[in-house]
Amino acid sequence: xxxxxxxxxxxxxxxxxxxxxxxPKIGVSVxxxxxxxxxxxxxxxxxxxxxxxxILPLNMAIEIAKSSDEDVQxxxxxxxxxxxxxxxxxxAVRRIIEQRRRRGKQMRDSKFGRRDGSKRPLTSESIIRV
Length: 130
What we know:
The protein has helices spanning 3-15, 19-26, 30-41, 45-52, 58-65, 69-81, 87-103, 124-129. The protein is an all-alpha fold and 130 residues long. The chain is extended. Mean pLDDT is 76; it is low at 110-115.
């Protein structure tokens, strides 16, 4: 699933669907819908993206969302000792947590290094230059 689809899950109740009606439509459990919805309501787009990519277990994402930085480090240590996270996944989760700490909970569209949002006009010369 993609973040757009997951965001749509949150908007379904506005349309009039309940979690019990949404779950069979997209093939997941009611609990899954509820947990993803709670993460998105808290603005935890990075964690939801990691869950959907299979990098981070959903229950761990919930714990990270409601914990302090120190508690998150303890949870990572515990996940490692219990062999829940190893190797590449552990490195990826650490990277996500660090990005979340530095950049915030939400994902932002990349403007390829341009922070002011200004755009240069597209010309044939600029295309050739690239």
